[in-house]
C-alpha cells in the first residue's frame, strides 16, 4: 500500500499511522532510522514498499517493530499497478515509468510492468523470507475477512487485549477515501496474456527453494 508522511490517532487509543520514509516518488522506501527514533515513544502503524535487508533488520530489532508483509497474487499486482500509474502518478519506486508508458494500450502497459516491475515484487517477496519475525498476510484474507486479518496483526504486535467489537467499530468508522484502494477485487490478473503469465513463472523459477504459491505462482 502507499502512504504519505502523516501522523494521526488510531481507533485503538495511544497510537497512530505515520511514515518512516523521507521521500517517495521514484525513491526506494527504505526506513529512515532517524524517523524511527523520533517516533519510538509512540505506538504506530506505517505502510511502506520496503524490502528486507541489513538496514531494515537493524531498525526492526532496535525499535521492536512487528513486521507484517501484505502480499497478493502477482498477476493481480500487474493490473493494480497499471491502474495506479494511470490514476495517480507514473512516479513510483518499483519501475521507472513515464507518461508515454501510461498512455500505452492495456496489453502493452501490462507487458512493460511484467518485464520491469514484477522483478522488484519478486525481489521484495524473496527478501522477507530472511526475516524470522514476519507475519504474512494475503490480500484475499484482508478483503474477505478483514476482522480476522486485523486480529492476527494485532496479536502479532502484542495487542491481544483488543476486543472484536472494537475491531468491528474501527472497520465501520474507517475513512475509506484515505485507503487509496483501487478496485480491491482479487482475480483481475487472470486476464493477463499467456506470454506475461509465462514470463512471471520464468522469473520465479530463479528461486527454486522459495514457495511462490502465496502470491499465485505454482
Walk me through this protein's architecture.
There is one protein chain. The protein is globular and about 50 Å long. A hairpin with a 5-residue loop joins strand 1 (8-9) and strand 2 (15-18). The chain has a single domain (8-215), classed as P-loop containing nucleotide triphosphate hydrolases (Rossmann fold, 3-Layer(aba) Sandwich). The longest helix has 14 residues, at 74-87. 42% of the residues lie in helices and 8% in strands. The protein starts with 7 loop residues before the first strand and ends in a 14-residue tail after the last helix. The protein has ten helices and five strands. The protein is mainly α.
Amino acid at each position: 500500500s502507499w502512504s504519505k508522511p502523516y501522523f494521526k490517532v488510531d481507533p485503538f487509543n495511544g497510537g497512530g499511522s505515520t511514515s518512516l520514509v523521507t521521500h517517495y516518488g521514484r525513491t526506494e522506501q527504505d526506513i529512515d532510522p532517524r524517523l524511527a527514533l523520533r517516533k519510538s515513544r509512540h505506538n504506530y502503524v506505517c505502510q511502506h514498499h520496503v524490502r528486507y535487508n541489513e538496514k531494515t533488520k537493524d531498525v526492526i530489532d532496535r525499535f521492536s517493530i512487528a513486521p507484517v508483509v501484505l502480499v497478493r497474487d502477482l498477476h493481480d499486482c500487474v493490473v493494480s499497478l497499471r491502474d495506479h500509474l494511470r490514476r495517480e502518478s507514473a512516479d513510483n519506486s518499483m519501475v521507472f515509468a513515464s507518461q508515454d508508458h501510461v498512455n500505452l494500450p492495456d496489453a502493452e502497459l501490462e507487458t512493460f510492468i511484467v518485464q520491469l516491475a514484477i522483478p522488484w515484487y519478486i525481489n521484495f517477496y524473496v527478501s522477507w523470507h530472511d526475516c524470522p519475525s514476519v507475519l504474512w498476510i494475503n490480500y484475499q484474507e484482508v478483503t474477505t475477512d478483514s476482522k480476522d486479518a486485523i486480529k492476527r496483526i494485532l496479536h502479532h504486535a502484542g495487542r491481544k487485549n483488543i476486543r472484536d467489537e472494537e475491531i468491528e467499530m474501527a472497520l465501520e468508522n474507517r475513512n475509506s477515501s484515505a485507503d487509496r484502494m483501487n478496485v480491491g477485487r482479487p482475480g483481475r490478473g487472470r486476464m493477463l496474456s499467456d506470454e506475461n503469465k509465462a514470463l512471471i513463472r520464468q522469473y520465479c523459477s530463479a528461486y527454486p527453494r522459495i514457495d511462490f504459491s502465496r502470491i499465485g505462482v505454482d
